[in-house]
Amino acid sequence: MVPNGVQLSGSHRGRAAYTASLKSQGFRTGVSDLVVAYPVGPYHGMYNELKRDVAAYKGPKALRTALRPEQREWLELMNSAGYWGCVSYGVEDFKRQLTSYLKKKSPRSLDMFDWLEDTGPAQ
Asked: What are the beta bridge partners of residue 87?
């Protein structure tokens, strides 16, 4: 798991100081949540962005997560660099994609973004 997601709370000044500290340590927005550093077939590894399973999520619509532009750009960059970049909606979807990747099946391409439904504002 990539320790790139943070929950910022507290005062504006405190959040700004913490964000500056993270950036000085190499923090980058958009980096995927999970990295599988294991080459399979033509891929050097797998980058996976985890999102809520919107079909199973019963909470407020505002908390449903959509793919942010920085996340999409990161996945496209990883795909062009020879990695399999993908989005999983829930744990079961991630398991299916990881199994497919490890069995050297032909993974879905980033064209999947064309048919993904916007699930609301990004968190």
From this structure: 49
CA atoms within 13 A on the CB side of 41: 11
Quick: pLDDT tens for 68-104: 899 999 999 999 999 999 998 888 889 999 998 888 7
Domain 29-114 of CATH type 3.90.1010.10: no
Residue 90 CB-density burial (10 A; 0-12 exposed, 13-18 middle, 19+ buried)? middle
Query: Is the CB of residue 17 less than 8 Å from the CB of residue 55?
Result: no
For the chain, counts of helices (H) and of strands (E): 3, 3
Residue-wise pLDDT for 20-56, tens only, equals: 787 787 777 788 889 999 998 889 999 999 888 776 6
**pTM, two decimal places:** 0.67
The C-alpha angle 108, 114, 117, rounded to 5 degrees, equals 100
